[in-house]
């Protein structure tokens, strides 16, 4: 609308200038007739008329005309959104975890060395995708579900009190071992190499929480030790097609960026079993990203891998 008004005003200005110039020409034309009747050289008089017209026609063009600037509504409407203040939650006791923003049950389970199915069962969670910020989760099994570790094999076994009396009596005849001779869980936990290839990235607690082993698409990925598959899928961002195996109450291993997964959640695997094929899902190159977690915390796999 404003532009149309400007064009209209300009049209009126040009029309006024034209009428004004026309009147001057008519007036000068009459003067030229006077020059002719009075015997004055007509050609010289005509040239004077033309020059006068040109000079006068430039006057309106040089004149200053006030044109109103276009009206633009620059009113800024700001909406102040009320962000709720961060809640200062009290600390949780050992064995519990409070959900933070951005958490997922799969990630929580991996970081705490647990099976997400177990966490869901312990906390009566029917949908793993529906957890709330501030929610407190129990991260330990009830006493009735607690399992004991068989040190000689590094796998889970039934509670010791379920053994037969005959076996208990036979074990009792054996000489007691000194406390110094009892191996720790780290001493007895050894892993086979999960893939063949060059290490292209070593463990770094800040940037790389495991080993990156290069290879070709389709190369076999092997279970590093016996255990139970607690995760098989692609739900953890940055890991691609991922398999997590829980070996005992302390250790689990993770195998990431696979092309295909050959085992499913709940499957029991043995050491050296082919569980996946190497690929580059959610990675910039074909490789296996291999992690070892001790109580959910990443540790250097080299400490537990057998010499090649």
């Amino acid at each position: 609308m404003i532009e149309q008004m400007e064009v209209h005003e300009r049209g009126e200005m040009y029309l006024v200038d034209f009428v004004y110039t026309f009147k001057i020409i008519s007036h000068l034309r009459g003067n030229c007739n006077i020059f002719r009747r009075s015997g004055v050289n007509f050609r010289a008089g005509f040239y004077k008329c033309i020059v006068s017209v040109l000079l006068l026609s430039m006057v309106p063009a040089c004149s200053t005309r006030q044109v109103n600037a276009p009206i633009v509504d620059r009113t800024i409407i700001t909406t102040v959104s009320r962000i709720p203040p961060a809640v200062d939650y009290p600390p949780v006791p050992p064995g519990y975890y409070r959900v933070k923003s951005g958490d997922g049950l799969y990630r929580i389970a991996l970081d705490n060395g647990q099976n997400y199915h177990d966490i869901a069962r312990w906390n009566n969670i029917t949908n793993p995708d529906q957890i709330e910020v501030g929610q407190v989760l129990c991260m330990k099994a009830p006493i009735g579900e607690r399992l004991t570790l068989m040190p000689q094999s590094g796998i889970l076994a039934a509670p010791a009190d379920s053994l037969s009396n005959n076996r208990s009596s036979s074990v009792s005849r054996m000489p007691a071992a000194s406390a110094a001779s009892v191996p720790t869980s780290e001493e007895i936990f050894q892993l086979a190499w999960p893939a063949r290839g060059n290490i292209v990235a070593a463990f770094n607690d800040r940037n790389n929480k495991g080993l990156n082993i290069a290879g070709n698409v389709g190369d076999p990925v092997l279970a590093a030790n016996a255990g139970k598959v607690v995760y098989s899928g692609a739900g953890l961002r940055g890991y691609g097609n991922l398999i997590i195996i829980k070996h005992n109450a302390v250790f689990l291993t993770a195998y990431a960026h696979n092309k295909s997964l050959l085992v499913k959640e709940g499957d029991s695997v043995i050491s050296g079993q082919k569980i996946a094929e190497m690929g580059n899902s959610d990675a910039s190159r074909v490789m296996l990203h291999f992690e070892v977690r001790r109580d959910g915390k990443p540790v250097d796999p080299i400490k537990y891998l057998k010499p090649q």
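The two ends are 82 Å apart (CA to CA). The longest helix spans residues 2-37.
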